[in-house]
Amino acid sequence: MSTILETIQSPADVKKLSIAELTVLAQEIRERLIQSVAKTGGHIGPNLGVVELTIAMHYVFDTPVDSFVFDVSHQAYVHKLLTGREREFHTIRQPGGLNGFMLRTESEHDSYGAGHAGTALSAALGMAVGRDLAGGKEHVVALAGDAAFTNGISFEALNNIAAQTKRLIIVLNDNEWSIDKNVGAIAEYFHKIATNPMYNTLHEKAAELIEKFGGKAARHMARKAEEAAKGLVGRGVIFEEFGLTYFGPIDGHNLPLLIETFQFLKTQTKPVVLHAITQKGRGFQPAIDGQKKFHGLGPYNPETGETKPAGQKTYSSIFAEALSGLADRNDKVVAITAAMPNGTALDEFRPKHPDRYFDVGIAEEHAVLFAAGLATKGYKPFCAIYSTFLQRAYDQIVHDVCLQNLPVVFCMDRGGLSGDDGPTHHGLFDIAYLRSVPNIIHMVPSNEDMLADMMYTAMLHDGPAAVRYPRGTGPGAAVKPYPVAIPVGTAEVLRDGHDVAVFALGAMMGEGERLVDLLEQQGLSVALIDPRFAKPIDRQIVEKYARRCGLVITLEDHVLAGGFGSAVLETLNDLELETPVVRVGWPDQFIEHGKPEALRAKYGLTAEGAMLKAAPAVHTLVDSVAKRTVAAG
Ligand SMILES: Cc1ncc(C[n+]2csc(CCOP(=O)(O)OP(=O)(O)O)c2C)c(N)n1
């Protein structure tokens, strides 16, 4: 017998269901999410929390005519299940399968793609204003988590909404969690509203009444709640101060109440905020007990929630250990994360140095400025921000840190391909965006021990420094008890050679070693160099090998445009050297999600790919080496 979920081809089918059937649908969706994500991995906790909200939204509104904008959009799995992607759902985050986030190219129901936090309100306002300008009637609904309101952009949007449109619906999905526990004054403020007994009685009563009398009661109670909220905080609910009408808090798992409320909000001719209280991980006890772990994770046991025990230490963990070691010996070392204590492993640092640990919320720009301020007082801030999220803070890096030459260290986890999360999360641009800024140095370790050395180097360096390291594990190099500083701007020659020079940066070292073997099989003498610095690059080594060898090959887990290979080319151009350079890295396009190894193979970021790309130059070289050998003898 087919389930109700299997009969949903599009949101039109959701609208045909009774409340009792919708309740069954909610259960089926939860079961499906738990079972399916157990195999693929993904954002299970956030999605279990928005089952009723998403069903109610699709019941009342009409995508793709109406638009839904989900902040981050990691919580859009239920939306995917209800918009014709139920059959493909098992492919989510798998190579060639559904993306883990909203994707405009994936479905007409995905009106806006995302992966970074804080974008929903502004994008939704743009849609609402676009609709108003065109004289349209459709609805725009933005759903954003409570942690999205720790992000400045959400407030930049709030500052504009009331002045620019009369029709926009914002759903504040409040579960009190970011990935870790949500932090800061906004989190406390939402908590105060959500736990105020007056509200709780109000929304419980509203729920009861709605069952008896329908929508009128909801309207009345929502208004009452709004008035009460005004009393609660004295000056009025924050959203009201921004000119939006606030409704709530309401139980975000009460389907009939949500449906009634959305039906009412749909009729409003003023921008509104609906504050829905939800529980992350609802319906799956391991996710309720382990909110942090079940925000997003790899495969797990769907009965117990168990995951594979951690094997080799990740780069993140090595980073946190190394930083704790530096902080033990230097009381000026401080650590900053923008809502990623888990992902960056700084939650391993936190108990050791609680006074020098700062989680600033999803606020990368603030994090960098905060670090700049600390640096002016003689502190040595280490900002642990993923490569992709640091893009947010580019102006602060340029205008505040680098221009003033402040000694802030950027530790860019997930520097390189991120894998299953896809293009929103790949960290493929940081060499290009940092290499162009004066004063900063940029380091890329090829193993764990080198990461620790580079952090020590950064600590000693009197100016801005960046270190990028990949997601997951490295080659497993043992980390020395005490790190050693690396002279700034020096590469390391791992093996000498005189026909080809291979510069393998960071995570590409393994492929570099294999490439050396393949080239040697062609009878060539090959040098292998670990550049270590993307900036400043070691001009002496580059010059020496470019003069000596007939071919230079660069390998990097970064886009080719503006990357390490470009830096080598610029250096050769400055030196007026014409040695051919073959650059291996990511092409000028956004890379889809997938398994890193498969994607590297597909795009030629392998030893074989390098051989293919270098084939014409290698042939010429092999010929000339053969001639040289004949002439010699
Ligand atoms: C700019 C940026 N920084 C960090 C992240 C990592 N991140 C993804 S989801 C998330 C927490 C989101 O919490 P919330 O908005 O409350 O939604 P919930 O998952 O609780 O539903 C964070 C910090 C991100 N996606 N974008």
Task: Using brief descriptors, characterize the structure shown.
633 residues; 5-stranded parallel beta sheet; 7-stranded mixed beta sheet; binds thiamine diphosphate; globular; alpha/beta
Mean pLDDT: 94
Count of distinct strands:
17
> What is the share of helical residues?
40-55%
Q: Characterize the largest beta sheet: strand count, sense, and whether it forms a barrel.
A: 7 strands, mixed
Shape: globular
Question: Helix tally?
Answer: 25
Bound molecules: thiamine diphosphate
Task: State which percent range the strand residues make up.
Answer: 5-15%
What spatial order of strands do you see in the largest sheet?
A: 7-6-8-9-11-10-15
Oligomer: single chain
Low-confidence runs of at least 5 consecutive residues: 229-235
Task: Tell me the radius of gyration.
Answer: 27 Å
* Class from secondary-structure proportions: alpha/beta
Tell me the distance between the termini: 82 Å
Annotate the secondary structure layout:
Elements: H1 4-7, H2 11-15, H3 19-40, H4 44-49, H5 51-60, E1 67-70, H6 77-82, H7 120-134, E2 140-145, H8 152-164, E3 169-174, H9 184-195, H10 197-213, H11 215-233, H12 238-241, E4 245-251, H13 255-265, E5 272-277, H14 285-289, H15 315-329, E6 333-337, E7 357-359, H16 364-376, E8 380-384, H17 387-390, H18 394-402, E9 409-412, H19 430-435, E10 441-443, H20 448-460, E11 465-468, E12 492-495, E13 500-504, H21 509-520, E14 526-530, E15 533-535, H22 539-548, E16 551-559, H23 564-574, E17 581-586, H24 596-602, H25 607-632
Parallel strand pairs: 1-2, 2-3, 3-5, 4-5, 6-7, 6-8, 8-9, 9-11, 10-11, 13-14, 13-16, 16-17
Antiparallel strand pairs: 10-15, 12-14
Helix pairs in contact: 5-13, 7-8, 10-11, 11-13, 15-20, 16-18, 21-25
Bound molecules: thiamine diphosphate (TPP).
